[in-house]
């Protein structure tokens, strides 16, 4: 099948690209160097309704489908992966509410998220529960008409700047519940909740402007009205969320790869060695061809995956794992080659490709490592016999 | 305050080509003329502050609709696109005649025109139009505000040593400059809404204009030859570390007595 973008999608993509080139690209190096969260970019994305994209029109959003959101993430990540991630997290952090929240809960929080007044986060990972999500230790216990939350989360993207955090916690310790993946529940924790705090912010290799934080819950009291979905539905909500959010990371990866190609192509046309532009040396020409071809293949798989997930395909998990796997590995390979094309200049911070190479690495790690994506895809291949 | 903003769809800057007939090739992508976007921004700000709405008006080939679409996304309420094969090769007189006929069919208090267009650079359609419509003409606007009682318009006209403050009763035609302020980026919401806004397409017949009275055969002048400026000498690219680069650039400028 072929995914053809609608005129709306083309117009939105081009507008986001123009905005990213004019306003975000000039900030990218500084965001990386300072390691500070770019609040100015949040404001810009809010003003231009980019953060409103995934939310329903009646809640102040633009009602954009998954592919449209991914087009925006791709275009912004082309110039700044940290900034592209802001859009991806606006989607990721709100997905539990989108998938399992009641209309009242959605109406309570979506308008602020759509306007960019509230930043969400998605808190699943713990120090001892990374790929093995079922090992979560953070505990939610009944406390009167609400819940008491105890434990800690680790590596939470934008955890220290988020106003609303979707937290997954254990609500049933029985072996039976665990076997049935019914031991977790999901809660929205508001930033000013007593007993909730953000701890250490990690020093990272890439996406350095995006604060990755530890979150601590020390008897934090959560009203039952903040519980998303049924008690015991948490694991299912988390998995369904990842099915829809992994394409966002694939979009970030495709964007990073595309940005690297553009820098490499420009450099190859300008830089002269042995009396001609290095792009005319066939070893460089071939590298550029492979970089562009791989990136386009990843992009087309991403767009098709978005289409399948939106259409409610029974193999949505497989599509979304496949596109993240393909795009993450592509971004890593293409940015590495971009550094190679630029030679010594690619290794120093005068050019953005070394930053892109560092940023690309995270797309092979978060929202499920590439190994987890292969497990998801491989098990589905075995189950379906192809 | 109802404002008609003239928008010309010009070749994308940097992409301009001339056809074999020495006329601007309009088949290679069009965008809204830069100066027109400045006046559109001023018009949008005025209607946001004082009420009313903005109507875009263009004359051009089918591809000109994209320039209108962007203006609609920025916030204009509607657009009128005058398009007719017989209009190809129109000179300023034809253009002003056709635009005047279109404007007479619209309700307006003000007409805004950019100082000139990036392709033709004539800068005469605006004043010509004012003359045809019998409107006061306020040129080189750097700021546009309603007068104290709301029936007039005040324009700061840029001059060599500052500005003159002009005032005229409405309706009037204002020619604006870049000093009016940067045009906004369309928001994504604006882009989505623009898809549902109306673009009226009018032909010469709709305007009651005979095809043989406009277009290339009636043009008062024609371009008989074009020549590109001589190529510039190769650029010097400085790739040293900042300190060395600064020294090189300073030497370069000093050698030419530019600093």
Compact overview of the structure:
The complex is a heterodimer of chains A (386) and B (259). By secondary structure, chain A is of the alpha+beta class.
Report on the architecture of this protein.
The complex is a heterodimer of chains A (386) and B (259). With 386 residues, chain A is α+β, with helices and mostly antiparallel strands. Chain A folds into three domains: 7-119, Orthogonal Bundle (Butyryl-Coa Dehydrogenase, subunit A, domain 1); 121-231, Butyryl-CoA Dehydrogenase, subunit A, domain 2 (Beta Barrel), CATH 2.40.110; 236-384, Up-down Bundle (Butyryl-CoA Dehydrogenase, subunit A, domain 3), CATH 1.20.140. Chain A is 53% helix and 15% strand. Chain A has helices at residues 7-24, 28-34, 39-47, 66-77, 81-100, 103-114, 175-179, 234-270, 282-310, 316-342, 344-347, 353-362, 370-384, and strands spanning 120-123, 139-143, 146-157, 164-170, 184-190, 196-201, 212-223, 227-228, 272-273, 276-277. In chain A, the strands form three sheets. A four-stranded mixed sheet of chain A has the order 1-4-5-8. Chain A has a four-stranded antiparallel sheet with strand order 2-3-7-6, with no helix packed on it. In chain A, a hairpin with a 2-residue loop joins strand 2 (139-143) and strand 3. In chain A, helix 4 runs antiparallel to helix 5 (81-100) and helix 10 (316-342) runs antiparallel to helix 12. Chain A is globular. The model of chain A has no long low-confidence stretch (mean pLDDT 96). Chain B is α/β, with parallel strands linked by helices and 259 residues long. Chain B has one domain: HUPs (Rossmann fold, 3-Layer(aba) Sandwich), CATH 3.40.50. Chain B has seven helices and eleven strands. Chain B has helices at residues 34-50, 65-74, 92-104, 125-133, 188-194, 204-207, 242-255; strands at residues 2-6, 9-11, 30-32, 53-59, 78-82, 110-114, 137-146, 152-159, 162-169, 172-176, 199-202. Chain B has a nine-stranded mixed sheet, with helices on both faces. In chain B, strands 2-3 form a two-stranded antiparallel sheet. In chain B, a hairpin with a 2-residue loop joins strand 8 (152-159) and strand 9. Chain B starts with a strand and ends with a helix. The model of chain B has no long low-confidence stretch (mean pLDDT 89). Classes of the chains: A alpha+beta (386), B alpha/beta (259). Chain A binds chain B through residues 7-8, 11-12, 15-16, 18-19, 22, 47-50, 52-53, 62, and chain B through 69, 73, 185-189, 191-192, 194-195.
């Amino acid at each position: 099948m072929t995914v053809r973008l609608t005129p709306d999608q083309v117009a939105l993509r081009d507008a986001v690209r123009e905005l990213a080139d004019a306003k975000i690209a000039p900030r990218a190096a500084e965001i990386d160097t300072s390691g500070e969260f770019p609040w100015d970019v949040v404001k810009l994305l809010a003003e231009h309704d980019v953060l409103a994209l995934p939310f329903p029109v009646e809640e102040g959003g633009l009602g954009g489908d998954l592919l449209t959101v991914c087009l925006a993430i791709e275009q912004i990540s082309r110039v700044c992966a940290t900034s592209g991630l802001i859009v991806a997290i606006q989607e990721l952090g709100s997905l539990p509410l989108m998938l399992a929240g009641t209309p009242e809960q959605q109406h309570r929080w979506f308008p602020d998220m759509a306007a960019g007044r509230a930043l969400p986060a998605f808190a699943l990972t713990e120090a001892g529960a990374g790929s093995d999500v079922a090992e979560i230790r953070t505990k939610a216990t009944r406390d009167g008409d609400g819940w008491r939350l105890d434990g800690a989360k680790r590596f939470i993207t934008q955890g220290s700047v988020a106003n609303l955090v979707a937290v997954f916690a254990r609500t049933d310790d029985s072996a039976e519940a665990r076997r049935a993946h019914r031991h977790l529940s999901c809660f929205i924790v508001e930033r000013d909740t007593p007993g909730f705090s953000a701890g250490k912010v990690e020093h990272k290799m890439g996406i350095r402007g995006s604060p990755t934080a530890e979150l601590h819950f020390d008897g934090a009291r959560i009203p039952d009205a903040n519980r998303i979905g049924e008690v015991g539905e948490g694991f299912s909500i988390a998995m369904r969320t990842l099915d829809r959010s992994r394409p966002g990371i694939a979009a970030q990866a495709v964007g990073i790869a595309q940005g690297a190609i553009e820098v490499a192509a420009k450099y190859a046309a300008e830089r002269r060695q042995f009396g001609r532009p290095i792009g005319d040396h066939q070893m460089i020409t071939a590298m550029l061809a492979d970089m562009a071809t791989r990136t386009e293949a990843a992009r087309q798989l991403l767009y098709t995956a978005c289409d399948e997930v939106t259409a409610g395909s029974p193999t949505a998990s497989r599509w979304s794992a496949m596109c993240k796997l393909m795009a993450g590995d592509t971004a890593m390979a293409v940015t590495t080659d971009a550094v190679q094309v630029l030679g010594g200049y690619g290794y120093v911070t005068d050019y953005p490709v070394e930053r892109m190479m560092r940023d690309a690495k995270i797309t092979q790690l978060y929202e499920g490592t590439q190994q987890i994506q292969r497990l998801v895809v491989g098990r589905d291949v075995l189950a379906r016999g192809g | 305050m109802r404002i008609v903003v003239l928008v010309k769809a010009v070749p994308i800057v940097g992409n301009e080509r001339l056809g074999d007939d020495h006329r601007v090739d309009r088949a290679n992508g069009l965008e809204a003329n830069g100066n027109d976007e400045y006046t559109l921004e001023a018009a949008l700000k005025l209607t946001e502050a004082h009420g009313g709405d903005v109507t875009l008006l263009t004359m051009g080939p089918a591809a000109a609709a994209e320039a209108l679409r962007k203006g609609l996304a920025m916030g204009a309420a509607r657009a009128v696109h005058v398009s007719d094969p017989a209009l190809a090769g129109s000179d300023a007189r034809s253009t002003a005649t056709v635009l005047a006929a279109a404007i007479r069919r619209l309700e307006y208090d003000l007409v805004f025109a950019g100082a000139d267009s990036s392709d033709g650079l004539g800068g005469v359609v605006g004043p010509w139009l004012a003359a045809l419509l019998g409107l006061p003409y306020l040129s080189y606007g750097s700021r546009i505000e309603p007068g104290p009682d709301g029936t007039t318009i005040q324009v700061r006209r840029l001059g060599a040593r500052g500005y003159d403050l002009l005032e005229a009763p409405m309706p009037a035609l204002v020619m604006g400059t870049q000093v009016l302020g940067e045009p906004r980026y369309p928001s994504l919401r604006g882009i989505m809404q623009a898809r549902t806004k109306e673009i009226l397409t009018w032909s010469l017949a709709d305007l009651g204009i005979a095809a043989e009275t406009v277009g290339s055969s009636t043009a008062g002048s024609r371009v008989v030859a074009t020549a590109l400026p001589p190529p510039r000498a190769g650029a010097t690219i400085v790739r040293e570390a900042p300190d060395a680069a600064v020294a090189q650039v300073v030497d370069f400028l000093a050698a030419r007595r530019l600093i």
